[in-house]
Amino acid sequence: MDIILIRHGTKIPTSPDKDAPLAPEGLAEIDHLKERMTRLGINPAVYLTSKYKRAKQTAERLAFDASLIHTLNALTPDTDTFSSDAQHMLTSISAEAKKQNIDLNQQAVIAIVGHEPQLSTLLRYMTSKLEIGKGSGVPVKADSFDALIKGKGTL
């Protein structure tokens, strides 16, 4: 199993923050990421994303099919399941995916599209790497999504 942690591209400063779209620079960052993913043959079976506009835009630009995109509260700031604890985040992501009839343990490649500092917290928990830049992705390998919940991912 491969997990691709993807941080949304640069946003246009807007209030409220949840409605901030990608800036032209952010669109270019995500288009560049899509080119790299395509060149490397990285084709996620599912995109799990925050409900914030810029994260959804990022997933929409990357996915070849909109039906692969699923929004989750666990990835959305200011929701009841959003957490700064990595194990809790992963457990919540798994539970929400199951409610949408997605068995994450059966997916070969999963893209998680979200925000800082949550993505770096997940990355540190799963692999010990420190941060994710804007408009970039980091591939994480694991035997299953359950293994990620236990902090057993590798770069």
Unreliable stretches (pLDDT < 50, length at least 5) are: none
Q: For this structure, what is the CATH class?
A: Alpha Beta
Sequence of secondary-structure elements = EHEHEHEHEH
CATH topology: Rossmann fold
Largest sheet: 5 strands, mixed
What is the total domain count? Answer: 1
Pfam family, one: His_Phos_1
Protein name: Phosphohistidine phosphatase SixA
Structure description:
The chain is an alpha/beta fold and 155 residues long. The chain has a single domain (2-149), classed as 3-Layer(aba) Sandwich (Rossmann fold), CATH 3.40.50. Helix content is 35%, strand content 15%. It has five helices and five strands, in the order E-H-E-H-E-H-E-H-E-H. The chain has helices at 24-39, 53-62, 86-99, 118-127, 145-149, and strands at residues 2-7, 46-49, 69-71, 109-114, 137-141. A five-stranded mixed sheet has the order 3-2-4-1-5, sandwiched between helices. Helix 3 packs across helix 4. The protein is globular, with a radius of gyration of 14 Å. InterPro entries: His_Pase_superF_clade-1 (IPR013078), His_PPase_superfam (IPR029033). This is Phosphohistidine phosphatase SixA. It comes from Ktedonospora formicarum. Pfam families: His_Phos_1.
Give the tags.
Rossmann fold; 5 helices; alpha/beta
Short summary of the structure?
The protein has about 160 residues and is an alpha/beta fold. It contains five helices and five strands; from the N terminus they run βαβαβαβαβα.
